[in-house]
Design a protein that fits this description.
Elements lengths: L1 E6 L10 E7 L8 E6 L7 H18 L6 E5 L4 H4 L2 E2 L2 E2 L19 H8 L7 H18 L5 H13 L4 E8 L1 E2 L2 E5 L3 H11 L3 E5 L7 H16 L11 E9 L5 H17 L16 E4 L3 E5 L4 E5 L6 E2 L4 E6 L6 E5 L4 E6 L4 E2 L4 E6 L13
Parallel strand pairs: 3-4, 3-7, 7-11, 9-10, 10-12
Antiparallel strand pairs: 1-2, 2-4, 5-6, 8-18, 9-11, 13-20, 14-16, 14-19, 15-18, 16-17, 18-20
Helix pairs in contact: 1-8, 3-4, 6-8
Length: 374
């Protein structure tokens, strides 16, 4: 294993942060490349514990010569957010300086790269992938940055842009294990969902605001659309998935060790690791449109208490929570907006009027525009 250190742009004199990446196998290996990163939202800790167990297992596999592809692991993807605290509270989702979500606004270089290589593409899909990856890496490396946050985004993109598999390990507040990916990635994502025991895969086509997973997978289907009539085949060369490892408090060795083993089973199934591959498990969930994931809002402020748990199936109109006004003693019922799976809920129990407190995944797309939360 090789450890690489990536210096970020210092925001002020006397400050300096680094991004650390761990590299297994050989770059350019025929078996392909997988990139895994943990805790891009730095206050989402389950991914860091999974990375701890992955590192131990990958070290053992490498010592035995059983890594056939290239595997890059970033055990802590956000040193900026890791350092942000206010009054003993950790603030790892948004950068304190700009207010920007660490998992949004990655540079879109897709059309610029397409323009650069258009004259060189041809009927050989494998060669087309190679040319596009090389051009994308050059474009990212040359992209200007003038803030520490922008330099972090550039370093993460450089590590992931040529990967066949990109797994971005996150978690929700309180949730069942679930996945986000783009629609063109759905067939390749389905085995991952089964190995992980995911209860839900949420599918979209450009959910808005350029999150990390989509900036890795989106180039391929957009390039395919652009060049499909010119006899220049472009496959979906990157499976990129956001893996939501349950809730923020689910930081337990037993869960993390099992998740790490299941991730390695998937990589072995894809041929990057040489080890016995268990039979593909039966699915525990299904795929549903992200546009069918409906937020539940509270119209009033007060003390929140839930009547239903993450993983419960709800019917439209069913009461899933109540908000209690401790002054008037009024009780406000909060109802499920659709038939569907209660897959995530807030961990805060004092809510404000208009606050989103849960998410229920239905089968029908009902929303449009930007589909992700803040």
């Amino acid at each position: 294993m090789q450890t690489h250190t990536h210096a970020l742009l210092p925001p002020t004199p006397g400050t300096h942060r680094e991004l650390i990446s761990l590299h297994y196998g050989q770059p350019g290996a025929a078996a392909g490349k997988a990139y895994l990163q943990a805790s891009l939202h730095a206050d989402e800790l389950p991914g860091m514990l999974v990375a701890h167990h992955l590192r131990r297992k990958l070290d053992a596999l490498e010592a035995q010569g059983r890594i056939k592809g290239e595997i890059v692991l970033v055990p802590m993807a956000n040193p900026i957010g890791l350092s942000q605290h206010l009054l003993h509270g950790h603030l790892g989702r948004f950068e304190a300086t700009s207010g920007e979500n660490f998992n949004r606004y990655y540079p879109d270089l897709i059309e610029a790269v397409a323009d650069e290589v258009a004259a060189s593409l041809g009927a050989d899909a494998t060669r087309n992938v190679q040319l596009l990856r090389q051009a994308l890496r050059r474009a990212i490396a040359q992209s200007p940055v003038d803030t520490e946050l922008q330099s972090l985004r550039r370093e993460l993109m450089l590590l992931a842009c040529d990967a066949d598999i990109v797994l971005d390990l996150h978690c929700d507040a309180e949730a069942v294990l679930h996945l986000y990916t783009e629609q063109p990635c759905a067939p390749a994502c389905e085995p991952l969902a089964r190995f992980l025991g995911s209860r839900l895969t949420l599918l979209a086509l450009d959910s808005g605001d350029k999150p990390f997973d989509e900036i890795c997978s989106q180039p391929w289907w957009r390039w395919a659309r652009r060049f499909e009539t010119a006899g220049m085949p472009i496959p979906q060369a990157c499976l990129s998935v956001t893996v939501e490892l349950r809730g923020q408090a689910d930081v337990e060795h037993a869960l993390a060790e099992r998740d790490a083993e299941n991730l390695l089973n998937f990589l072995a199934w894809r041929g990057l690791i040489e080890q016995p591959v268990p039979a593909l498990p039966d699915p525990l969930g299904d795929a549903r449109p992200l546009a069918g994931s409906m937020p539940v809002k509270s119209p009033v402020g007060g003390v929140l208490t839930f009547l239903r748990q993450p993983g419960d199936w709800l019917q439209a109109g069913e009461v899933l929570a109540q908000v209690i006004d401790p002054i008037s003693n009024a009780v406000t019922d909060l109802h499920s907006p659709v038939d569907g799976l209660l897959f995530a809920r807030d961990s805060v129990r004092l809510v404000r009027a208009g606050q989103k407190i849960a998410k229920v995944a239905g089968l029908e797309a009902r929303r449009s525009g930007k589909l992700l939360g803040d």
